[in-house]
Structures are given as structure tokens and as C-alpha cells.
UniProtKB/TrEMBL annotation:
InterPro entries: ADH-like_C (IPR013149), ADH-like_N (IPR013154), ER (IPR020843), GroES-like_sf (IPR011032), NAD(P)-bd_dom_sf (IPR036291), Quinone_OxRdtase_PIG3 (IPR014189)
Superkingdom of this protein's organism: Bacteria
One MF annotation (Gene Ontology) recorded for this entry: oxidoreductase activity, acting on NAD(P)H
Organism from which the protein derives: Rheinheimera nanhaiensis E407-8
Entry protein name: Quinone oxidoreductase PIG3
């Protein structure tokens, strides 16, 4: 094994807020605890949470790294005493912050072996979106074959993962997106109904297409979407809100429509879950879909990879809302 340097290069957020900047600094290389791996980072996934954190809107949970980056792929350079079998192996998985650096700590239970034939960049584009989608669809949604699922932001990282998992589970899938190119990408992944929310009211289209209602709605928008979605729910259906891109407040919400359907309105996160929860989720996903991932029956949609020195450009591209799938930094 190569010698681990005492110091490493990392990307720091300077002046968090509207006018934040990203700056490279030298920081002490972290040391793994008993249940951790030290990853020599080859690639780090970029997530919308990174943009929110640098604006001061999504602070890391207590005891997590203040550095950006929630998922990495790389080589295990050091390990806690019970996890030495990982040394030298290529892995990917969630990290509790710290991904935008040459080295990052990963809980051993969050590590997944790099599938054969996958690049580091592809692997770095996988964990956050597929584990989030799996949590939404299976752990929370309990989606069954032939059920109907609506996925907003279908061309996003989570959206592209959720389409693939929902189809693998036998569901019928509708998506919304903002452009014809995004809708076509969703159709290529298996979406049955694709709606441009810029030119059509999704609730009117779906009320016609699926008059019997929808069993699960995955919503990263919130805001005024919620009151538009509730009438679409089938009996005992679930509306899961996992982000608030459209706003944190609902100006007018008639609960009678939710009661009428015995509907469940659920707010879900992944980042602030316990390490044990994330380990169990990682294991369950691997058991259910590890083979499909390895055989590329499901796979990340990687739009572009940037050298880590171009993190600012990558963030600007993500903020433009023109991307399809994932962006990744390479080290």
C-alpha cells in the first residue's frame, strides 16, 4: 500500500451563502475509526445537497464532515481493525460528508465493491441516487408489481434511478420534466408516461391517463405541487416528499381530499439517518439489485465528469437545471 500523506487537498466552502466560493485548501488527512474505511478518492458524486449546503441552507448533521460530498468511489487505503479485508479494494458508497477531498472516511457498512467494468466515475454516480430511490420506492413506498408511480424531476439523478428501479419492480411509471430531451431520456429508461410540466398540467394529464389513481408519488418539489397531487392518489396511497425545490410552505391545503383517500403524506430524508440505517439500506439494495447493477440492467446516468479543480463549473451546470442524470468530480 502507498504511504498515506499527513495532509491532503480538499475543497472548502468560503463565505457560505448566496455568494459562496469553492477554494482548495490543505487539510489533515483523516484517520479511520474502528468501523471506518479511509478511501483514496478517485471520483465524487455531485448532488443538489452540495449546492444547498454551500448556500447555508442544508448544514451537515452533528459530527459529520463539514466538507461537501456525500458519495465517493476509490481505493481503500486504511481500515479499522475489523475491516482490513477491504484494504486495496475498489469501493463506492455513501460518506457522511467529506467527499470533495483526496481522502474521505466511509463507514465500512456503507461500502460496496466496484462492479466489474464500471469506471470510478460511474460508481461515484451511483450510491446516493440509487439508495435514495430504493428507500423511496421499497423501504417507504413498498411498491408492488403493476402499481402506478409518479416521479417528478424524472431526468434528475434520483429520478433516473427511480425510473429504472420502479420498472424493475414491475410498476407503471409516469414522469415530469422540463424539456423534450429530458422526457426522451426518461422514456429510454422505461417511463410509460412523460409529461412536460412547462406546457401541460401534469394533474390533468394523469387524471385522464390513470383515472383509478396513483399508488405512489415521489416529489422533490413540494410547495404548491402537494395540493395538485393529492387528488391523484389512489386509496391508501402515499405521497413522499424528499426535497423542497418548489418551496417549504403550502399556502392552501385541503386535508379533506387526503382523508377521502386515506392517503399518507410522508417527508423523507437520507442524509440525517443513522449509520446503521444506511448500512442496512445499502445491504438491502445490494441484495435486491446488486446483480442487476453489475449486469447493467440498471445503471447510473452519467452526463459529465469534471476534474476536481473545476468543481465550481460543475456546480454552475447543476444549478442551471439542464442536466440529465449525474455530474461527477474526478481526482
Amino acid at each position: 500500500m502507498a504511504t498515506i500523506p499527513a495532509m491532503m487537498q480538499a475543497i472548502q466552502v468560503v463565505n457560505p451563502g448566496k455568494h459562496s466560493m469553492l477554494q482548495t485548501q490543505l487539510l489533515a488527512t483523516p484517520e479511520p475509526g474502528p468501523d471506518q474505511l479511509l478511501i483514496k478518492v478517485a471520483a465524487a458524486g455531485i448532488n443538489r445537497a452540495d449546492l444547498m449546503q454551500r448556500r447555508g441552507l442544508y448544514p451537515p448533521p452533528a459530527n459529520d464532515s463539514p466538507l461537501l460530498g456525500l458519495e465517493v468511489a476509490g481505493i481503500v487505503a486504511a481500515a479499522g481493525p475489523l475491516h482490513k479485508s477491504w484494504l486495496g479494494k475498489a469501493v463506492f458508497g455513501l460518506v457522511n460528508g467529506g467527499g470533495y477531498a483526496e481522502y474521505a472516511l466511509m463507514q465500512a457498512g456503507h461500502a460496496m465493491a466496484l462492479p466489474h467494468g464500471y469506471s470510478m466515475a460511474e460508481a461515484a454516480a451511483t450510491a446516493e441516487v440509487f439508495l435514495t430511490a430504493y428507500q423511496l420506492l421499497s423501504t417507504i413506498g413498498n411498491v408492488q408489481s403493476s402499481q402506478r408511480v409518479l416521479i417528478h424531476a424524472g431526468a434528475s439523478g434520483v429520478g433516473t434511478a427511480a425510473i429504472q428501479l420502479a420498472k424493475a419492480l414491475g410498476a407503471q411509471v409516469a414522469v415530469t420534466a422540463s424539456s423534450d430531451s429530458k422526457l426522451e431520456a426518461c422514456r429510454q429508461l422505461g417511463a410509460d408516461i412523460a409529461i412536460n410540466y412547462q406546457s401541460a398540467a401534469f394533474e390533468q394529464v394523469l387524471a385522464q391517463q390513470w383515472p383509478d389513481g396513483i399508488q405512489l408519488i415521489l416529489d422533490p418539489v413540494a410547495g404548491e405541487y402537494i395540493s395538485r397531487e393529492i387528488p391523484l392518489l389512489a386509496m391508501d396511497a402515499k405521497l413522499v416528499v424528499y426535497a423542497m425545490m418548489g418551496g417549504r410552505e403550502v399556502s392552501s391545503l385541503d386535508l379533506a381530499a387526503l382523508f377521502k383517500r386515506r392517503g399518507l403524506l410522508i417527508c423523507s430524508t437520507l442524509r440525517n439517518r443513522s449509520n446503521r440505517y444506511k448500512a442496512n439500506l445499502t445491504q438491502a439494495f445490494s441484495q435486491s439489485f446488486g446483480k442487476a447493477l453489475a449486469q447493467r440492467e440498471i445503471a447510473p446516468v452519467l452526463q459529465q465528469q469534471f476534474p476536481w479543480q473545476q468543481a465550481e463549473q460543475a456546480h454552475q451546470l447543476m444549478a442551471s437545471n439542464t442536466t440529465i442524470g449525474k455530474l461527477v468530480l474526478t481526482f
